[in-house]
Amino acid sequence: MIECSKGGEIMNRIKELRKSHSLSQAELAKETGISNQAISFYENGKRQPKIETWQRLAKFFNVSVPYIQGLTYTTEQMVKIIHDFYFMGYDSEHAFSVSDDFSNEVNIYIKVNSDDVIPRELYREDETEFKITDTVEKYWLKHFKSIFAIPKIRNIKKNNYDRVISAIHIVIEGRNRSPKTPHDLTYLGQFFIKKYEKESKYHSDTIDKIKYLDLSSAKIAINEYADLIIQLRDEVNNFKKDSYNEKDYDKQFAQYVKAELYNLYEPTKHDIIEFSKIIDELVNKIMNDKEFKKRLLNEEDKQDYLEIFRNYKKQHNENVAIIDEYIEDLKDREIDPNLYYEDIDETYNTDNIYLDEFEDQ
User: Fold this and answer.
1) Which of 244, 329, 354, 355 would disulfide-bridge 152, Cβ 3.0–4.6 Å?
2) Is 265 inside a domain boundary?
3) Are 183 and 192 within 8 A, CB to CB?
């Protein structure tokens, strides 16, 4: 917890950071060249460090100066900000487009990355006051603590409520749209991903050299390309299926499918619970029905995963009326899944890219 003064104001975070690094005051003094007595005074608020000392301490703990000074939001304050804004989206009197979008994005983030309920389900359906209980606080921390810790969010100074919401919104939206592929779990997949950029470069270089009759360069490019293809061929031939955990692979694949479907169909806060039941059933099929998983993998380039699931259920004489409604609604919105995901792949990459506009203050 953050230390507070008698007046209730948040003090600096020197003591908090020192303890989180398992250091005594004497050890911190030795590491930073600041006297033991001075550190004690700083931690108790009896004396304020000079800016040079703040900078030295911030550099040592790898945080910003405003953060160590206690001028940024605490984790508890972050929880309250995100909680209040999320439930503003469920307030018929005060909801507006930004809070509504934020609530929907949070719901998708929770559903894509966990098997948990959405925040609204933590309360009774007829409940109108959404107080932060210990259970609710633990829930938010479980799902968002890693996001609160991102430096460009952690370093936002107080009295920048909108900035906190915008930054968190950018991150969860980006993460929702860039799920890890199951290939990341296998050595072969990692090898291919690492080599793919080179493969693309060699391929384009070869084509260009031949196109412009630069034959001497073309020979070099072709040989480099051929060497790389041989490496890939050898990796495929030598790949052992027992070198990875198939259940983990299926779980990652299921999460990837979830991410694509939640982001493609964009269920609103009003129908996400119903939509999630369909997705949960689909995920269960991936994990337990090899025939269905094989069909998904074979047909994923022809139609989206929900359509494949619908056709599979129809083939087994199961009711698909609700799924049909979602598919028809998507067609009515005239969304092209291929264009949608091409745009996503170019836009979202890492948390740092999401938050380029949020420079340290």
Assistant:
1) 355
2) yes
3) yes
Does some domain include residue 37? yes
Q: Are residues 145 and 218 in the same domain?
A: no
* Contact status, residue 333 vs residue 288, Cβ threshold 8 Å: no
Burial of 253 (0-12, 13-18, 19+ CB in 10 A): buried
Kindly state the tokens that stand for 77: 């304050």
- The model's pLDDT over 80-100, given as tens digits with 9 standing for 90+, comes to 999 999 998 777 665 567 788
Mean pLDDT of 233-244: 70
User: Is the pLDDT score of 337 beyond 60?
Assistant: no
Question: Are residues 132 and 222 located together in one domain of the fold?
Answer: no
One-letter identity of residue 238: N
250 in the same domain as 208: no
Tokens of 71: 């001028």
Percent helix, strand and coil across the chain, each rounded to 5? 70, 0, 30
The model's pTM: 0.72
Q: How many CB atoms lie under 10 A from the CB of residue 109?
A: 23
Domain containing residue 312:
246-334
In one-letter notation, the amino acid at residue 179 is: P
* pLDDT of 93: 60
Segment holding 225, helix H or strand E: helix 215-238
Q: Which of 74, 72, 70, 73 is nearest to 48 (CA)?
A: 70
Instruction: Report the C-alpha gap between 269 and 104 in whole angstroms.
Output: 5
Q: Which of 80, 96, 77 is nearest to 88 (CA)?
A: 96
For 168-222, what is each residue's pLDDT tens digit? 999 998 888 877 666 665 656 666 666 666 676 777 777 787 777 778 888 887 8
Which tens digit of pLDDT belongs to each residue from 25-72?
999 999 999 999 999 999 998 899 999 999 999 999 999 999 999 999
Residue 5 lies in a domain: no
At CA 336, angle to CA 330 and CA 338, rounded to 5? 130
What are 70's two structure tokens? 């206690």
7 inside domain: no
Q: State whether 282 and 321 are in the same domain.
A: yes
